[in-house]
Predict the structure.
Amino acid sequence: MAKNNPLTLKQQLGAIASVAAMTFKTAPGAVIFKLAGSVIDALLPIATTYFAARTTTLLANAYSGNHAARSQVILYVFVTAALGLVMTVWSSLDNYVQTKMRYVVETKVSNRMFEHFLSLDFWRYDDKQTADLYDRAQKFSSFFSYVFDRIASIFSQLISIASAIIALVAVSWGISLFILLAVIPGIYVQFKLSRRQNKLWNENVETRRALSLIEWDMLQPKLISELRLYGMVHHLLKLRGQLRDKDEKRRVEIEREMMPLTIFSNVIQAGAEIVALIWVSLKIIAHKQPLGQFLYVQQIVGRAISSATSLVSAVSSIDEDIANLYDYELFMKLPQRQNGTHKLAQAPEEIVFEKVSFHYPGKNMPDVLHSINLSVKRNQHIAIVGENGAGKTTLIKLLTGMYPPTGGSIKLDNTSMQDINIDSWHQQLGVLQQEFITYGFATARDNVRFGKVDKPYDEKRLEQALQEAEASGFARKLPNGLDSFVNNWMEDDDGNKGTALSGGQWQRLALARNFYRNAPVIILDEPTSAIDALAESRIFRRLFADRQRTVITISHRLSTIKNADCIYMLEHGTVVESGTHDELIARKGKFYHMFESQLQ
């Protein structure tokens, strides 16, 4: 997805207003406090500087024998100290409010983005352009809570600069204008630098994604053995270095390329400060200015320059964030999954595929399924077989409503799936996919009960699910039984460490989660590929003996599917054979030749 041109000033101001409005809506009290704090942060230092300069002048007068100045010195010392105390207390309060506001805002924004991400059309999770957009949008959302801080900082620094310039006008309008002009080059340089870095960030989304995946793989204990056996460690480290150079090293190079301009702007600011101090020194020597005027000008000029530097930093940071706001808002405008209105009260009596064809989203994508016709009656046991790439898993994606067919229709009791509330359909399903979730942060018990979290926990059902999945034996023998963490990186409050499970144990636990769900329609995609043959036989003997559930199974094992009521043979996305196991064997067609070695 191509990155648009930089936002116009009007768009940037609108985006800043949008951020401010959302932040105010989320935490209005904190926003008001923050804005008040910005004014106080800007004015208190200047007030403190004024009284400190007056104190210096009075001290000089008192030293020269002016008795009236002595009592005033004490008063000004107290005022200056009081202002310092107020600044310290206010700073502590401000830090607390900022921390709280960030927490509240970040929670709301991250929840909003997660909810939107999880409500998109399923095809978008396989779409590279959506993934790129999400990566860029996530960068903005991660720092959303800090954006208002930067807005408040900009507001504060603008007041600081304005008040400093006004304070200098009281001494000399020429000096104030001179200082104002001196900060302009620094603003230009910082803006140019931030734009180049932001452009680099957006150009290197894929680079950072590859880098992240490499670093993740290298830190997975279960992958270490293969990485070492194949000599991949040094190769991946080298590749990681190349990717880091492409992204981070280039960022450093941009800083280096901009360094002459940065130094030039810094020299101008330092020179302006020196000129201002020489000017006030000469005025004091000529007795045209009081002695405290040196401290006053020195502090105010320093304040003006430091405020300008802080302003540039805040503006350049928010400039980069607001530029990324385009991606964030574009992502949040992605349409959510369209949901039908017809709700299923129970499992359908029949599932029918009528001339269903499908190709994945994208231009010129070939059909993966071609004019599929099949039906599944309630409580029937169906098997779908075929070579890898035949379209079996894609067919399941359509059946579960993840993708709509691009041709034909899928009907549940004569109602098109497009018109059915997808959530009500999912409530009827228990699905075990090839790449099932392993909840490593949870216990064995949780990994099973997560199959049905919208109902109260049922110990009896959980025990039955473990037995049906042949998982009760190993699960009860874990160090802390079912309450053991199933990840050796986890540890409970009593110091009991988690246990790593084998692939077969994980598969049984996932199968138990599916059975605990107790759904009327069960879909199993290679459910026992890591389970030994005897355990698999017992699992499916029990499963096929249960005539109270519809079972749809994908498998390459003949022993798994031979007792199915009907077997559909897929080849290149087309149903080429269907029938019972005995019928297909007797036919000696595609099915027979696929399983010939297992038959022998």
Remarks:
- The chain has a mean pLDDT of 81.
- Residues 232-285 form the longest helix (54 residues).
